[in-house]
Amino acid sequence: MCSVEVESILYENPTVNEAAVVARPDEFLGKTVFAFVRAKGGVEERPTEEIVEFCRRRLPNYMVPKPVVFMEELPRNSTCKIEKFTLRDVAKSMGSLPPKHEHVAKAT
Description:
Layout: H1 3-12, E1 16-26, E2 30-39, H2 48-56, E3 68-70, H3 84-93
Parallel strand pairs: 2-3
Antiparallel strand pairs: 1-2
């Protein structure tokens, strides 16, 4: 998985203001793609299924983020770079989600 490639697809979505993609350990697959998104225009949350479907039409299935988590702000360091190590910790702490709730996660 190339996080930069997945992020570039997410940025093509007109509702996405910022995006960060990390890998999350998975017992069955080894790793899964986990996306954190901040929506444009102060919109707090969009249906994650729309973003997942948007990615599905543009990426191979193994690169489609599952789940997509909306955040009000993405964590940044003192130079304003997104702290992916922090997001990896958040992704790990969320644990495995049941399949039917895979795309409805939300973090603040």
